[in-house]
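Archive entry: two folds, one per protein. Generate the first.
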Amino acid sequence: MSAAERTGDPVADNELAAFFSDLQSFRRVLLAVSGGPDSTALLLLAQRWRKARKTGPELIAATVDHRLRKESKAEAEAVARLARRIGVAHDILVWSGKKPESGLQEAAREARYTLLVRLARKREADAIVTAHTLDDQAETLLMRLAHGSGLAGLGGIRTRSERDGIALLRPLLGVPKARLVATVQKAGIPYVEDPTNVDPRFLRPRLRRYAAVFAEAGLTPGRLALVARRLARA
């Protein structure tokens, strides 16, 4: 683990090319920005990377308002204001209709990607970019272990995949969440803390409670992500 990973240093400008080089081959990309610290950092860093280049893809940001909390509309509008302020176009997408009583997180995820793909086609975007982090990868591996996943599932989140013909890119998958939080805080940008991230009804938040215990045993996010990469190669 590097010093930056240990201390949660903000992401530096000289790291951006390595993170976003894959975006260069696309004409237009859609950034999925919820308003949380990870995706807010994605918006800031991608815009910083693109601004420093003479050529590159057009950036468009999108926020999905799931309408699951009364604050969600205002949070989406705050992301829209930030995007406009830094010169990035922005769309708000609404998950309307009745919500399921069970499997809510899975249904919300499916609705989110459906709306993003639909917007990508409308905007003629070649790719959708999400802000999955090293911590997300580690948690995903643990969740899939808990569910008894096979080798393919234990390969975790891929840096690049596809959905309905649209590329899905995750350029920050190797970056610890703490560094993205530090990046947004250094920029003085407020962000949303989604209460479902600590809701014990869901498995992922329950696993986060034991992160320190796992790390003490050597199961750090970096080590778990390394296992996922090796299983993906296998």
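Generate the second and append.
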Amino acid sequence: LMRDLSPLAFGSILGTLGTVYTALFMGLRYLDGSYAAGGAYHAAIEAAARPTFAAAGSGSLVNLNVLVLISMLATTFLAHYNAPKFYDELAPPKDGSSKLGRFNLAVGGGFGLAALLCISIMSAGFLTFGGAAKGFILNNYATADPLAFVARLGIFASVTFSYPLLFVGLRDGAMALVGLSEAAKKPAVHRLATVVLITIVNGLACFMKDLGLVTALGGAILGSTIVYVLPALMSLGVSRKQKAGTLQGKPMGSVETAFNYAMLPVGAFLAVVGAWMTLRGA
């Protein structure tokens, strides 16, 4: 219900530390072999969660299941819809200079850390459990594992404090979609929209158990569109207006224009084939 999310800064740090701990914990459990055959916790987890490593495939050059992973990765960096709000709430430098430099540092650091954590967690999870890795990887670890308990607390903190940041984008987008952006400034409308959307989202979460399916399908359709297709269309549209003189600024060069046109079929391909492979696997 908060209008200004800056008080959640401490919670974001706490959640990030929880995710960092989880990555370190998973790496430790892979190295010490606790969940491998004969390991301390191998017998403490259900048979379906125990490590499974199948033999190599039939020799095909490309495994199309990699598109499911690409679809999941698309959701990892879906934070840029909040960029204007983050920029607006970022405190300017004390010397009075532009805060763009601080914003670039925050963006680069945030996305860089996200990439590092994703690589670490995916690698440790797969190397530990192989084909038995679950959509929510911590479900593979034994409840009797004390370090896993702390990791679950860390992810709980991460989800709890990042949820409002994601929800703001959902609520603002939904209100704009139905033409109620101005009405949403009224406290009563703001509260009602918040309660209704949270009820819908959390209600669906009670029935949709496969986190991997939700992440991959959403990443394939929505992620590919938001990451690849829409930015290219917006860039091309702005450049056309700049060439026509109806908008200030220098239009894109031929190389950048060609790159944006190339992103359109790439995004469409990843969306269609990624969704198909995800549903096929499900």
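Annotation attached to the second fold: The first helix runs from residue 9 to 32. The mean pLDDT is 87.
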